[in-house]
């Protein structure tokens, strides 16, 4: 257990070291690191019996591209704060996303991981297509929205599952990350009554109370699906065990 804690902590430290560019730290917020995805990647690669040094390499590089996507998504589109400082921070945030993406390509190319680069590039394409769809709000059903969220949240890790022959974990990854995202969006929706995901839900649900009930019904079914997955896939239970150990190490 100590070995798991130490390895995971070491990977986190290596990732944050790569992210700490002194100029960006001075002018923009520290990049958001989705530690649930970090722990999932670590757990999956441990299940794939990848050598510990390679686990560190893959987790850090794949998280860099995830952080690049998240950083670009954080770029504000508000027009009510037109100041020089605002424009500078916005431009630097875009540049930071490009910088993290460049680091990812550099680190993977150093290992000649051409097949993985191609797989992740396909995942990035799928994510961006669904982000465009989310902002266009062109959905007809709640299931369509959920499918978009699953792709946005899990496409990169699903490509990792394919690359390392861990396909049986993909349904679990989809459900866990979709639930995590929806819970965060729901909290945000309750606070400011406006998020792209729940704006899309509102266009399908005719009343506010209907939206609440549909969301809660979906959440119950999604969590039940995870429990069902755990009962039928022993390897997923092992993944959960490692995941819980790594997240508790904080």
TrEMBL record:
InterPro entries attached to this UniProt entry: HEPPP_synth_su1
Gene Ontology BP annotations: menaquinone biosynthetic process
Pfam families noted in UniProt: HEPPP_synt_1 (PF07307)
Protein name as catalogued: Heptaprenyl diphosphate synthase
């Amino acid at each position: 257990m100590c070995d798991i804690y130490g390895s995971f902590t070491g990977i986190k430290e290596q990732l944050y070291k790569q992210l700490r560019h002194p100029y960006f730290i001075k002018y923009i917020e520290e990049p958001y690191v989705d530690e649930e995805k970090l722990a999932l990647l670590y757990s999956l690669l441990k299940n794939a019996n990848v050598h510990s040094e390679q686990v560190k390499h893959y987790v850090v590089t794949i998280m860099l591209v995830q952080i690049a996507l998240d950083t670009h998504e954080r770029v504000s589109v508000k027009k009510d704060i037109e100041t020089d400082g605002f424009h500078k921070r916005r431009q630097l945030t875009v540049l930071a996303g490009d910088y993290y993406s460049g680091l990812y390509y550099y680190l993977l190319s150093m290992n000649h991981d051409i097949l993985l680069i191609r797989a992740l590039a396909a995942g990035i394409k799928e994510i961006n297509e669904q982000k465009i769809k989310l902002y266009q709000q062109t959905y007809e059903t709640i299931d369509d929205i959920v499918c978009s969220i699953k792709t946005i949240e899990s496409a990169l890790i699903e490509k990792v599952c394919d690359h390392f022959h861990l396909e049986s974990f993909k349904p679990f990854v989809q459900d866990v990350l979709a639930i995590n995202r929806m819970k965060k969006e729901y909290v945000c929706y309750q606070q400011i009554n406006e998020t792209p995901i729940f704006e899309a839900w509102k266009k399908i649900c005719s009343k506010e109370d209907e939206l609440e009930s549909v969301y809660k019904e979906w959440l119950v079914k999604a969590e039940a699906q995870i429990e069902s997955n755990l009962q039928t896939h022993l390897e997923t239970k092992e993944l959960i065990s490692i995941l819980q150990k790594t997240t508790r190490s904080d």
